[in-house]
Specification:
The complex is a heterodimer of chains A (about 100) and B (about 800). Chain A is mostly beta strands. Chain A has one domain (about 5-100): Rieske Iron-sulfur Protein, CATH 2.102.10. Helix content of chain A is about 0%, strand content about 45%. In chain A, strand 2 and strand 3 (about 25-30) form a beta hairpin. Chain A is globular, with a radius of gyration of 13 Å. In chain A, about 45% of the residues are buried. In chain B, the strands form eleven sheets. Chain B has a five-stranded parallel sheet. Chain B has 24 helices and 39 strands. In chain B, strand 23 (about 315-320) and strand 24 (about 325-330) form a beta hairpin. At the A-B interface, strand 1, strand 2 and strand 5 of A face strand 39 of B.
Amino acid sequence: MADWIEIGVVNDIPKLGSRVVEGPDGDIAIFRNSKDEIFALKDECPHMQGPLSQGIVHDKTVTCPLHNWKIELDTGTAKAPDEGCTGKYAIKVESDKIFISL
Amino acid sequence: MKEKLVLIGNGMAGMRTIEELLKLDDEMYDITVFGAEPYGNYNRILLSPVLAGEKTIEDIMLNDVEWYKENDITLHTNKTIVNVDRKKQIVIADDGSEEPYDRLLLATGSNPFVIPVPGHDLPGVISFRDIHDVDLMLEASKKHKHAVVIGGGLLGLEAANGLMLQGMNVTVVHLGDVLMERQMDAVAGSMLKKSLEERGLHFLMEHATESIVGDDCVKGVKFSNGVEIAADLVVMAVGIKPNVELAERIGLHCERGVVVNDTLQTYDPKIYSVGECVQHRGEAYGLVAPLFEQAKVAANHLVKMGIGIYEGSVTSTKLKVTGIDLFSAGDFIGDDSTEDIVMQDAQRGVYKKVVIKDNKIHGAVMFGDTVDGAWYFQLLRDQTDVSDFRDSLMLGQAHLGDSGHGGHSAAEAMTDDMEVCGCNGVTKGCITKEITAKGLFTLDDVRSHTKASASCGSCTGLVEQIIAFTLGGDYSASEQVKPMCKCTDLTHEQAQKAVKTQKLTSALGAMKALDWRTEDGCHVCRPALNYYALVNWPAEAFDDPRSRYINERAHANIQKDGTYSVVPRIWGGITNPKELRAIADIADKYDVPTVKMTGGQRIDLLGVKKDDLPKMWKDLNGAGMVSGHAYGKSLRTVKTCVGKEWCRFGTQNSTAMGIQLEKLTWGSWMPHKFKIAVSGCPRNCAEATIKDFGVVAVDSGWELHVGGNGGIKVRATDLLCKVNTEEEVVEYCQAFIQLYREEAYYLDRTAPWIERVGLSYVKDRIVENDSLRKELSDRFVESQKYSQTDPWAERASGAVEKNEFIPLKKIG
């Protein structure tokens, strides 16, 4: 079963914002949307590896800061007509604490 | 139970309405579609290229039968609706089947007009309207030699061209003396005729058809002047008329077409109607662009949102005949109240005429070189006052300085492998292929699918031409009033006004107050609203970091590898050994890989890791330097020449003026980046005449220039005025910036803003009106009280947005 690693609490991440976790295989972007849902994606846009953590978060989407590709937070998939997918990580929140599984 | 929506007419207008409706709400209706033809929905406007052998039927399918299944839509092909029981709300098909409806959408299109001369019903006489007609023509072209096309309009010429390419000997018969007289004036019409004759078409002008000769099939055509010519195939292309047969039978109010109101509702409130069968405010349209505008509004009302209004369309025309470039829009003939500007070069085969009324474009017709057609059309639809640039109007918008597409200006002359978009490496062939394959109609469609013109935008005109050419007259030019983004129907202008009048002081608050469709907006509207709040309410607004692009949130420029660049402010471009030493030491300390001089006389430290930013800023602050805002929609730099202090030609102290202007204006948020330059004499070494605000010193004072741009599209400034004193330079500069800040739309540079509102408008407010200028300048000074805090110092101290620069955790 997956190992859950605690990475912080919900309020460490700004609403509609993101923070970076430095993982063993590169940066992971942790997002929080307006409904306080937490998502984790590899911090690389499938287009040209732009850091998604630096993008603008809206609904369940982040817009990449480099060329405005829109990536779905829950799947890592680029929204049409763009095509591509970035890695996603399992996340769970228990009594305000955020855990990630690599 | 879902409500039932029935569509009669499986064509482009009806199906576009369904598509728009599904976008808004795909749960609301059970949808049933009846079509008389045996196909899914195809792109009727591409029938000409099919006839010409340039495309196949499969190429032009918009919604194939599978699509209906995937979207849970019941499609009945080959079924004509013969009656509607409006009381019982039931439609009845020719096979007797019935279907109940709650809402009915009527999109029966139009019928070709057939001249009722003797012989019009002979085999071999056809019209040019659907796939069946194209099949008949293709078949005939294989067996027969002589084709006669009756009607020298858009459709007739396209049919004639197609048949000629299929190897037939084609004669076009026209009643009038000018081809395409609804789209061309006499000069353009004769140029068109000449050019088509050179390709091998024959013309009989001013010939009235008397009869079609033949016993059991077509043998020839006879005219009223006694002339008779041989024909194996006759194509009637003299026009179309709205198909109101069903509507009249069921008692809907019809005139020329089915009469609808501004919501596309017929006289029966349960029945809507769109497309070529419709008559709206007295007009019936036969082009796709207006139909799509109607579709959008009808869909909006069908899902009961009830906010769209269709106010009619202005249309433009292009001919889909490969190698012929023509364009027309509006009233290009004119009358006593209009003025013509004409440019003609018979040698090059170029003719342009623009008709002006009350300083606004009333119509335009062009032949041979239509690169500026889209621009004239825009000016026409926006009713822009052209008096400020009337002298260069005929030279077009693209007459100087566009970069990025190899100097191509005529899409028609380009081969498929030529690059159109130099940013994203998109060729002409790629664009035309996607337009056909994916059924694209608008510039936005093409941008999102191909990325052509989606980056710097310098090739937009070229891309529009390619779309227009591929789709002919049916190209949907970008909407006249465009919503800010998909989250709202409000335009920038409306949102800006609402923020001001309703005192909306934050982006999220504004979205709530203005009924945004999405909860959080998007990367387009949030930064715009955040800006509108800041500029209107400098003291009260909440500057939301989550509604800022990363560069403005992190106060540094993000680079392609995720590192940042740091540009300290160097006032007026004047520095000293101490500052330079400090910058050098800091670059060493943080291992800055690249140090570069910018175009604006600053030093760029590239490749800085995000978590080093606050530390580096602290060191720069320590050496007396602050943020250079090279990352912001704000004042970038004030570039100067050395001026009279050193230069033997200098007339004024340009460096001191530059430093003064920079100290006054730094930190101010603007709709887009803003550059100033001050030159000490008319030699203009600081290149002030390609800046947003340029000051050129002369012996007797200062010239003030505005709206320049040295980027994608080089635009020299317009002279605003000349002033005598330094105090005036400052006041005019501040007033100009404030007018731009308050009135330009977010992400408008000064150049397009001035082109939109007109230089006279700016002059009226800044030059002619002393009190208004003073008020603007004062408002700018007031707003600067809230923006001239060094963002680097705030963040270096850890007091603001601390988490932005620190990783949440390191694991593994």
